[in-house]
Amino acid sequence: MRKAVALVGAVLLAFSLCSCEEKISEGTIYEKKFEPAHTVTWTQFIVAEKVLVPVVHSNPVPDSWYFSIFQGDGDERETARWKVSESQYNSYEVGDYFVAE
Q: What backbone torsions phi and psi does residue 37 show, to the nearest 5 degrees?
């Protein structure tokens, strides 16, 4: 039984390592996106004295700026999304070549 569990674990590890590719760090900008500040709220339920008690959490998210970039053509095309600073966002236009720092 231990051998079977070890074999399954090894196979799962091998598959997880094979699917880990680094995203591209440079390419042509094909989309710029600004996401204004907002608050993410979610509810977690905990058990207290055999009763489910809702606990509300909230997390403020600041303004965010993103570039979507690509490299290559056709079937060889790779894409990635990078979070950038406001000044970087304002310095580049769609079609410009971007290199992540």
A: -55, 145
